[in-house]
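Q: Entry one of two.
A:
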Amino acid sequence: MSTQPITTAQILIVEDEPEHADVMADALRRLGHVCTIVHDVASADEELTHGNFDVIITDLVMPGAGAEAGGQEAGLRVLELAKQKQPNAETIMVTAHGDVPTARAAFKFGAYDFIEKPLDLEVYRNLVNRAAETVALRQENISLQGKLDATGFEGIIGESQAIRSIIAAIKQVAPTNIPVLITGESGTGKELVARAVHRNSKRKEGRYVTLNAAGQSETLVEDELFGHVKGAFTGAEKNREGIFEYAGGGTLFLDEIGDMPVTMQAKLLRVLESGDVIRLGSNEVRHVDVRFITATNRNLLDMVKAGTFREDLYFRIKGTSIHVPPLRERREDIPPILNYAVARFAREQDANVKGITEPAMLRLLGYAWPGNVRELLNVVQNMVVMCDADMIDVRHVPQDIVWADKDDEVGASTAPGSLAGIGLDQLEKRAIRETLKLTSGNREQTAKLLGIGERTLYRKLKEYGLR
């Protein structure tokens, strides 16, 4: 049987005899695994607390491990700690022949398997590889399920906790008739959230009608909302129903409600309270049945305090609220959005672009995206059109993004000549700090981007006093 691993694993070896530990580690390092060695339970506890391991290999009996956890208790204590602090890892017990019954009992602590001394290195390598592959497969399934969950709900793309919370909120409020207020900066995808609420509501067979209140006069907004009768004003040549009536039985999405004039706010409030509308130029009351969703990029509470937004209207439209954070606060969503956008625009443009390289991805991760998802989609469309290869690379990234955001350490540090005269240790420290920033503190992803082992990264973090 081949001992060549399918995946490279982070492995913790807990063995009180240094020579044995070195042999165990060397046998695995030859296969490409990254091994960390400790000789007692206390050190194992520290590594399990601060590190990230796929497989933990521990001797059952460690007489030299210290009084706190010596003998057979040492190995079982390591298993217990691993289960608490590294629940996604697999554990392997190393035992002498006479301790096999105890080793079997270790299965109750969640051990993957055990192996007897003296080690048959071929059997040992295969056992560790199988354990590592089990972990890798489980993580791949979790990751795939997460991506399906994140991208499979009404086109809302992302893997962040914020996106998951938004999806959960949509699913909870959609079946009700409660008004929904969606907040967030321009370009974050508020309209997408509103549409998802409608499509998952009991009104999904009804119309979904939108109106943007920004930049429109009060007269125009009033006419759009309530409609008019023939002769109501110059140019009113026939009766026209407003969108409140048109959306009857469905959903009305009023975007940028914070831009609505105060006098118009009072008229809107009356409709929301009574469900009755009167067309311009008419005295006839018409009852409407509409689900009302609003959105704004403004702070409505500040506007209420300033007297530019009615407090009673605010509490009427805020039956429940959903906040969509800016892209810079959920950078983990950038890669899946980028991958989706590349595939989408390559298909639309009939372009032979299959993806985006890691250096280009890193550049785009470091950008602040003031225009949020809307800006990102526009940039990707441009890159797909201009790409002359099958992969988007750094040279395809627009220059205003490459050197933008001078206040951002990542953007500033990549400017030409900015590294001249800086010591190598400081360069290393900066590279680690900035890559951690790009990955929102994800040490596994940081180590991958830097091309080092996670254990090495952990040591450097302590050395440079980084968090």
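Q: Entry two of two.
A:
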Amino acid sequence: MLIYRVFTLTDTKSIDRYYLYLMRMGYKNKIFYSYGQGVANIGRWRFQTESFNDFCVPYPSRIEQQQIVNFLNKKTTKIDALMTETQNSIALLKEHRTALISAAVTGKIDVREVA
């Protein structure tokens, strides 16, 4: 039986996206692992509610939270666009590679003197 806990930000003076980024960073950098229980190496890990509630996090002003969110949104949008562009380039290169191999195998191009 698996049990998941969902925590909701109840502070209406805070920006939820700021805390989403903060929690993602904590997970990615394994900051929370030392507070959890379980077998982290095989994907089973639990961050107890008591430990989560006792965990101290930065609490900048709402203006600073919004500035951080705006900055990260801008950067992640740029990174996402670059990833899409890179994936498209890789797909196009694979197509060219396949076409080149096909042309060489079928004799449409002469590759005997290429070396």
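A: Comment on entry two: The first helix runs from residue 16 to 28. The chain has two domains: 1-59, 60-115.
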